[in-house]
Amino acid sequence: MSNKNNHPDSPVVESTVVKASASKSTDNKSDSAKTETAVKKAKSTTATDMSNKESSSNKESASTTEANDKSPDSTTKKPASAAKKTSKTKAVAGQNRVAILGGNRIPFARSNGSYADVSNTDMLTAALDGLIERYNLQDEVLGEVVSGAVMKLSRDINLTREATLNTALNPHTPTYDISQACGTGLQATFASANKIALGLIDSAITGGVDTTSDAPIAIGDGLRKVLIKLGAAKDNKQRLKALMGLNPKDLIDSPQNGEPRTGLSMGDHQAITTLEWNISREAQDELAFNSHQNLARAYDEGFFDDLITPYKGLTRDNNLRPDTTLEKLAKLKPVFGKKNANPTMTAANSTPLTDGASCVLLGTDEWAKERGLKPLAYIVHQETAAVDFIGKSGTTRPNGTFLCRTAYA
Question: How much is the pTM?
């Protein structure tokens, strides 16, 4: 399964996941090709060794050796031991398969709702706790835990480490943070998957967390500069001069739901994409309606029973609206792209601001087998690309710039 976007204009964040059962035939072909390559290399090594021996022997044995080197039989028999040595270094050479063994998350909640009083660390801890309990990882030393958030407070500088220490994982498990707008969890997974494939580690937990309820509110840049000058002042005259530079407008730097270079929110950027790709209001409403129906059915049929840990009184995502109808959706007014010729994006067919956390367990086949875990799928490919949404490369669009593109799964 690949999430490659086939639109000719569209960069992607792409990854390919194959089911465990689908990878066996590919591995057999790959192993055969690697063995053939190893034998060829071994032949070259054997020929070099024979040549070195010839220089230290008498003429008669030298000519005999030379004759043997030209013989097809001798070149096919000698490399056997060298080929075995090559196969033993398979893991070190980066041949490990990266298995997806399981996952867990907490229910997603609307901003300033059920999770209004909890932090990124609290939510990530809850997601990790559920995964660790489900797969009996208590006191395990994993290869690493990698996670992160886009909106972080200064206290979250070591977010993943603090959250991991709150869990039952062995404290000797290495951790670090990573961050990419809208792609933190994917990039964390790519990073650990690469290490597992290279044989550097044999297991990992990766994930992501974000909250818009507990958003960072910092002091304004003007106030910050005044405080720095105040701290460097050597007398009252310099202190007074520093304070005189304070502007009340600079006291607080409030978070904004907008891209700093364009000033547009993600919704307004998506409205540009929607307009240029000519996606109708009806199509967007239908997609939103089907999403609610599918999510409700998935909960009712038990799909999420082993994927979600209840948190703060929630057992389901509270963005879910199973009772909505296409008629209700059609009555809502657009909230994004209102300056466009034909705005179509409403509060119902757009993504709401949400708080939540999730994580996934990765490992080698050997690591999984030792713990009785069955691989669900394998990560076999990854690719990341960027969009020039400010027109720096000289390309312009009639309706404006795209902040991001769709990724197909």
Answer: 0.74
